[in-house]
Specification:
The structure holds two protein chains of two kinds.
Chain A: E1 4-6, E2 11-14, E3 19-25, E4 33-38, E5 45-49, E6 55-57, E7 60-65, E8 70-75, E9 84-91, E10 99-101, E11 105-110
Chain B: E1 4-7, E2 10-13, E3 19-25, E4 31-37, E5 44-51, E6 54-57, E7 65-66, E8 76-78, E9 87-94, E10 103-104, E11 108-112
Parallel strand pairs in B: 2-11
Antiparallel strand pairs in B: 1-3, 3-8, 4-5, 4-9, 5-6, 7-8, 9-10, 9-11
Amino acid sequence: RKEVEQDPGPFNVPEGATVAFNCTYSNSASQSFFWYRQDCRKEPKLLMSVYSSGNEDGRFTAQLNRASQYISLLIRDSKLSDSATYLCVVNGRDSSYKLIFGSGTRLLVRP
Amino acid sequence: EADIYQTPRYLVIGTGKKITLECSQTMGHDKMYWYQQDPGMELHLIHYSYGVNSTEKGDLSSESTVSRIRTEHFPLTLESARPSHTSQYLCASSEGGQNYGYTFGSGTRLTVV
């Protein structure tokens, strides 16, 4: 079983739609959680950290459910520029300094 | 404005050649990492370092080696390149700690012919 699992998608949504991605992780002791965005043939870029109480950054909302070991990302009012792959990231079993990246969920926003 | 730099961006090289991929960061981060990523596939950790003179192999077996003689510099070397080494190599650094993610360089896209 992978340490971080994501639905690969693609999620194909119209502009203005609300879309949500989930991710599950296997290490119950994980303390660090992030969402990264990766555009085609580019490096991953940090989108947002995920805090226990949930957090919001503009149109993006991240939630953490420790009991069920899943993380979610909600994107409201989708823009064409949101089209990318979204990576769920959790710290590894043996170190809080090693991050484990999920395979990513691909989002396509159409006009 | 990039605080972590990778060179070259693209490299096409013949089989058997020795190559070094450069990675430098100006943020004073102790933690640095090398990832390998094939197109459309996930990132695989191949090497990491938590400070000067400290290097460890990652989760994916790799024939490459790394060194960390200076905090800001973490080069990756392939002694004898093979077509199976064709991939994108991404360097990252981190301040460390619970809420600090990684900052990635732009990557080196390596093609071995």
